[in-house]
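Students often ask why inverse folding is considered easier than folding. One informal answer: many sequences map to the same fold, so there is more than one right answer. In these notes we will look at a single instance of the problem. The structure comes first.
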């Protein structure tokens, strides 16, 4: 629910909370100066009123108002995107906290940063409040200085990983390449950087470059199960299922608790045509994660490809309609209908699948064939045109039904 709120709302709420102290002081200062005093009553204590404090509070409120208005302008996102924004903000706040700390020491009056500008404690008359405020202000200043330094260091330190936003992957590649130019890198660090650059290449769908980096990393660290697994994914993506299965095997020997590897190896075996072996892997994946419907749905597809409707439907029946894996059930039932040459049923299942995923290559390709088989050439060519418009390449021989 809160994810849908604009970022400015959080800033405005923060400014309101932070502005309560100075706003209260300004209001009380004005009210005390304009109220009519009862001459018969004792004179009120107005020693707390200060022209300097009024000026500071007014300037703070004005600055907060300016920040709030600026946050809704087109320039605000550009400022926030600047690498130095967060370190600078924390640095300014830390400097302010340090200034309050020094001022409190010199004036013998301390104001805790979180209590507003109007509350202060005298060192002689309120020692507990004074030293508590000074300690708190010192802690806040130190933490903010440390945070500013850490953020700045993080921003200027070259990053070589695929965890950043997609817009930063190209920069990550440059950082990786710069790091690899260091001839004094030890083999372990070089292997880690090569593997990281391979992951970035994989994210960018640069399969050959990813394969080269993974292979170079594995020459330095041949027992890295994670890089073996990642290279297996690239081999499978490129259609080299034999090498993919070899890498999945090697990775699982080193890390048998990698549940995803059993499913991915099942896909590679299914795409390679070894359907019984694919069934075995999907069965292992299902036994390891019984609350995950995908292994069952994929095993059902493997059974459907073997034209085993009884076992296929037994698996499909355990996947609830409306679950994300439901599209696999529709594909599998289309495969069973294709075995029966029931082309209209194929079309019905895949039309429902395409409502769930309009870019489903397998459904478009298979439905185009079914339309052609019943003489609906125009509809068949329309599906072929949609496939071409997608501009994505599937595995050799067509799109895979599993997922």
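Output (designed amino acids):
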């Amino acid at each position: 629910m809160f994810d849908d709120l604009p970022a400015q709302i959080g800033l405005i709420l923060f400014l309101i909370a932070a502005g309560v102290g100075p706003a209260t002081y300004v209001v009380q200062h004005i009210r005390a100066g304009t109220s009519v005093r009862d001459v018969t009553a004792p004179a009120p204590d107005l020693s707390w009123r200060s022209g300097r404090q009024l000026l500071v509070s007014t300037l703070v409120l004005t600055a907060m108002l300016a920040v709030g208005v600026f946050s809704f302008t087109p320039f605000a996102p550009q400022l926030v995107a600047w690498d130095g924004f967060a370190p600078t903000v924390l640095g300014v706040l830390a400097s302010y906290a340090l200034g309050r700390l020094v001022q409190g020491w010199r004036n013998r009056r301390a104001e805790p940063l979180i209590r507003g500008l109007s509350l202060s404690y005298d060192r002689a008359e309120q020692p507990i409040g004074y030293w508590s405020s000074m300690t708190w202000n010192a802690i806040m200043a130190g933490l903010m200085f440390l945070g500013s330094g850490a953020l700045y260091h993080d921003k200027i330190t070259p990053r070589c990983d695929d965890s950043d936003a997609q817009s930063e992957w190209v920069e990550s590649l440059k950082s990786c390449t710069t790091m690899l130019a260091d001839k004094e890198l030890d083999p372990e660090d070089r292997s880690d950087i090569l593997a990281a650059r391979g992951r970035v290449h994989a994210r960018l769908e640069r399969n050959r470059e990813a394969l080269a980096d993974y292979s170079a990393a594995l020459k330095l660290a041949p027992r890295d199960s994670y890089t073996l697994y990642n290279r297996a994914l690239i081999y499978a993506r490129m259609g080299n299922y034999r090498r993919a299965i070899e890498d999945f095997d090697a990775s699982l020997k080193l890390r048998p608790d990698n549940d995803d590897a059993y499913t991915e190896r099942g896909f590679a075996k299914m795409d390679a045509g070894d359907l019984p072996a694919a069934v075995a892997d999907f069965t292992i994946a299902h036994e390891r994660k019984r609350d995950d419907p995908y292994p069952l749905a994929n095993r059902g597809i493997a059974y459907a490809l073997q034209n085993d409707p009884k076992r296929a439907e037994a698996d499909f029946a355990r996947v609830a309609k409306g679950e994300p894996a439901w599209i696999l059930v529709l594909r599998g039932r289309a495969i069973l209908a294709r075995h029966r040459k029931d082309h209209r049923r194929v079309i019905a299942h895949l039309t429902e699948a395409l409502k769930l995923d309009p870019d489903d290559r397998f459904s478009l390709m298979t439905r185009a064939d079914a339309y052609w088989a019943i003489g609906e050439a125009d509809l068949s060519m329309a599906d072929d045109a949609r496939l071409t418009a997608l501009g994505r390449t599937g595995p050799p021989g067509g799109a895979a039904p599993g997922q």
